[in-house]
Write a structure and sequence with these properties.
Helix content is 64%, strand content 3%. By secondary structure, the protein is an all-alpha fold. A hairpin with a 7-residue loop joins strand 1 and strand 2.
């Protein structure tokens, strides 16, 4: 048997037959991660469902003729052929409202996830890389943000800046302040371990500056954790936005979100119109569950201890 550079394992030959050559190509890290993720059935199913929800939110309004702001004479109509999700007390088609609400909730969640995870990752990487008093001071600041009663701050902002409180950007700012410290702590812990590795010492020996080491060597090696944190932040943001909507801080009319739809229709069950509350609530649960399953699948896929990959 002959081997060559990891490509050819060997050859076998039968009498009167040509030799059969077997080759094995080394998989890249990206291929290994993708293969592990595909083997996570719950994550793959959740990815499909989440993709359908995204299409529902962003493509659905283009295909559905009724606007989310149109008030018809059909008040409190139960789900039927003309109004699949029914209508509310203002005659607004709930299907259109849920499409628009899902769209707003996803936009808020994605923006908060990207901004908070990116800021937290850089913050944690800098803190862990320099260590010492720099690390101590930066982590105490992060701890201070973690101790803030975010709900109380939201109420205070709502009362003080009533005109601006309905702004999506203010809501995004508050939610980002809630989630970035957790991301920073996770990445900081990984950087504390990674900065002692040989590749960091080699980069130092070659004259690499601190900024290059952080952004070109340390942060790329925490990419798995960053992706997992960002996906789970999406679910956490949607649930938190729903809670804030109950307190009157969040998306306000004429805009809408899933949290606002649930809040406005919380008495619909007692009034004999349960679809107004349950349908947007189901979408909130659906998004949160699918994102959590996708996050679990990504966490398993990026786990470096999982070295065995089924063929």
């Amino acid at each position: 048997m002959n081997t060559s550079a990891g490509d050819t394992l060997g050859t076998t030959a039968a009498p009167g037959a040509k030799a059969a050559e077997f080759t094995v190509r080394a998989r890249s890290q990206r291929q290994i991660v993708f293969r592990r993720f595909r083997q996570h059935k719950a994550a793959m199913a959740s990815l499909v469902v989440f993709a359908l929800v995204v299409l529902f939110a962003f493509v659905g309004p283009l295909l559905w003729s009724t606007s989310a702001s149109f008030m018809s004479n059909d008040i409190f109509t139960a789900p039927d052929a003309s109004h699949p999700f029914g209508t509310d007390s203002n005659g607004i088609d709930l299907l259109s409202a849920v499409m628009k609400g899902t769209q707003s909730s996803l936009i808020i969640a994605v923006v908060v996830s990207v901004v908070s995870t990116a800021f937290g990752a850089i913050y944690g990487a800098v803190s862990g890389f320099y260590g010492g008093w720099t690390d101590t001071i930066m982590m105490r600041i992060a701890d201070l943000f973690l101790t803030f009663p975010i709900i109380a701050i939201a109420i205070m902002l709502d009362n003080r800046f009533q005109a601006e409180a309905s702004s999506l950007w203010l809501l995004i700012f508050v939610l980002t302040a809630l989630f970035w410290p957790s991301a920073g702590r996770v990445i900081r812990a990984q950087v504390l371990s990674l900065k002692e590795k040989e590749f960091v010492e080699a980069a130092r020996a070659l004259g690499a500056r601190d900024r290059r080491i952080i952004f070109r060597h340390l942060l790329p090696n925490t990419l798995g954790s960053i992706i997992v944190i960002s996906t789970l932040t999406v679910a956490g943001t949607i649930l938190t936005e729903t809670a804030l909507s109950f307190l009157g801080f969040g998306v306000q009319f004429p805009n809408t979100s899933l949290g606002l739809l649930v809040t406005n229709n919380q008495t619909a069950i007692e009034g004999g119109h349960p679809w107004l509350f349950y349908i947007p609530g189901i979408f909130i649960i659906l998004i949160a569950l699918t994102i959590n399953f996708i996050g679990d699948g990504l966490r398993d896929a990026f786990d470096p201890q999982q070295t065995r990959v089924r063929a």
